[in-house]
Amino acid sequence: MTIIASLLRAAQLPDSPTSRLDAELLLAAALGKSRSFLHTWPERIVPSEAALLFAEYLQRRRSGEPVAYILGQQGFWNLDLEVAPHTLIPRPDTELLVETALQLLPASPARVLDLGTGSGAIALALASERPAWKVTAVDRVLEAVALAERNRQRLHLNNVTVLSSHWFDSIDGQRFELIVSNPPYIAEADPHLIAGDVRFEPESALVAGKDGLDDLRLIVAQAPEHLVAGGRLVLEHGYDQAPAVRELLGARGFIDVHSRVDLGGHERISLGCLPC
């Protein structure tokens, strides 16, 4: 007979910096229980079916597959989201973009656009905090559009519309008070693309040309045509790209251009305002 405590002790995930947490998440999922159950009942016997499923999960994790993809879910903001290998895994760093966006506009009605929504994380987080906002979330990957829509329906966020669009292509004639995006921003030759969890994420959601700025350039160039006077553009980017993004924003005529720092001390987002 195998008990919870011994299974966790035997779990070996040497390549993961969060080995214990990973093991607990995987075992809890195999048991259909919460992590707190593992700590409350460490001497409980693990049924053979659950032990076999846990072993399968561990093997997938040892191969490098992210826990979020193994379990098909990831927490972001105050939401539990379905995730899948055709979208990025929502990360805590991106919550800075959500925090900033919420600070920029009051809770009164506003139109907001989320470009490259993926799982819908940013759009759904904003919509959950601001029921009066009308949020449009777009992605060019049809599987991502379907995934974001499933998350929207499960969370009952009726102030979000999910559309298929390659950036602004399907947004003709619409203007917004706020545009947000976490676009691809990794350079083609970046060594991080062949390391860690990123190996399993879709390249189309990660890579943006030789310097990682191709999509950021396009968004900054086209955003003024889709913002109202005084509208804001908020962009996530790489840890070392803030100066380049600020330059792009300034050159396109945005004012009040600045960057904000994430919990790791990196300039993670940059933003600007369209002049009135």
Strand arrangement within the widest β-sheet reads 5-4-3-6-7-9-8
Give me the strand/helix succession.
Answer: HHHHHEEHEHEHEEHEHEE
Q: What structural class do you assign from the helix and strand content? A: alpha/beta
Major beta sheet summary: 7 strands, mixed
Low-confidence stretches: none
Distance between the termini: 70 Å
CATH superfamily of the largest domain, by name, is Vaccinia Virus protein VP39
What percent of the residues sit in helical stretches (DSSP H or I)?
A: 25-40%
Determine and state the CATH class of the largest domain. Alpha Beta
How many structural domains can be distinguished in the coordinates? 2
CATH architecture of the largest domain: 3-Layer(aba) Sandwich
Tell me what portion of residues adopts beta-strand conformation: 15-25%
- Which shape, going by the Cα principal axes? elongated
- What's the count of strands? 9
CATH fold-level assignment of the largest domain: Rossmann fold
Give the count of helical stretches. 10
Radius of gyration: 20 Å
Mean pLDDT, to the nearest integer, reads 88
Describe what this molecule looks like in 3D.
This protein has 276 residues and is α/β, with parallel strands linked by helices. It folds into two domains: 4-63, no CATH class; 84-273, Vaccinia Virus protein VP39 (Rossmann fold). The protein is 36% helix and 20% strand. The chain contains ten helices and nine strands. The protein has helices at residues 4-10, 19-31, 35-40, 48-62, 67-71, 95-104, 121-129, 142-155, 214-222, 242-251; strands at 73-76, 79-82, 110-115, 133-139, 160-164, 176-181, 227-236, 255-261, 267-273. Helix 2 packs antiparallel against helix 4 (48-62) and helix 6 crosses helix 7 (121-129).
